[in-house]
Amino acid sequence: MKRKFQSITSRLWSAAALVVIIGIWQVAASAGLVPGYMLPSPVEVVQALITDFPLLMEHAKVTLAEAFLGLFCGVVLGFVMAVIMDRFDRLYQALYPLIVVTQTIPTVAIAPLLVLWFGYEMLPKVILIVIVTFFPVTVGLLNGFRSADRDMINLLRSMGAGRVQIFRYIKLPGAMGQFFSSLRISASYSVVGAVISEWLGGFNGLGVYMTRVKKAFAFDKMFAVILLISVISLVLMKLVDLLQKKCMAWEQTEEKH
């Protein structure tokens, strides 16, 4: 009960802070403290969002298709890489530094090369999303696998359990918390990665829409897209939370007791 009350209080404070920020933004824009072409008011942003909502939904379908496909491939790749590197220490020593290096290269620098190599269709966008999403999953799962209870592992070994049984009953359940934490990050990265890749080439998508309205100096529409992207990312993270509750039902039982 106390934890629930603290959660509600925290959300109320967050909502209050957001309202204050939006209020200051509206006052600054209405008073002309910031030129309208540089910072449109929240009211103008919402109006642009409502006016262009059908068109935004058409572009959002393309971006979400790219994001979901790239996220799925990134999660699968991250899971496989984590399992392999946990199983073979030599591969861990060889691959882990390379995986870290892939994250030091800015996505904006990779995107033009992918467009040059694979064209303007969906493939280069999905590849970029895979690059930015597999790393959190790989690292999160690896940390989870390697932090497994050694006493429990030794106990199962003394009972004749093999590597598969140890992985299934000890390592995998113990790493689920880290996995879903990483998946939240990857889910938000997938949308951002899709939009960044669409900036540099494409025919549809929220990134393409942003490029067009930027050239037209329609900054109210630019902010409307940013708002929509933020909402989509928050929804995806919430879906991950719901999936975690379904897959880790034992945590809910422990909290009740």
Topology (elements, then pairings):
Layout: H1 2-30, H2 42-51, H3 53-87, H4 89-102, H5 107-118, H6 122-146, H7 150-158, H8 163-199, H9 206-215, H10 219-247, H11 249-256
Helix pairs in contact: 2-10, 3-4, 3-6, 3-8, 3-9, 5-6, 6-8, 8-9, 8-10, 9-10
Membrane topology: Multi-pass membrane protein
Domain ABC transmembrane type-1: 60-240
Keywords: Cell membrane, Membrane, Transmembrane, Transmembrane helix, Transport
Radius of gyration: 22 Å
* Order of secondary-structure elements: HHHHHHHHHHH
| Main sheet properties | none
Average pLDDT confidence is 84
> CATH superfamily membership of the largest domain, which one?
MetI-like
CATH class of the largest domain: Mainly Alpha
Q: Do you know the CATH architecture of the largest domain?
A: Orthogonal Bundle
Number of strands: 0
What does this structure look like?
With 257 residues, this protein is an all-alpha fold. The protein folds into two domains: 1-39; 40-256, MetI-like (MetI-like fold), CATH 1.10.3720.10. Helices cover 85% and strands 0% of the residues. α3 (53-87) packs antiparallel against α4 and α9 runs antiparallel to α10 (219-247). The chain is globular, with a radius of gyration of 22 Å. The model has no long low-confidence stretch (mean pLDDT 84).
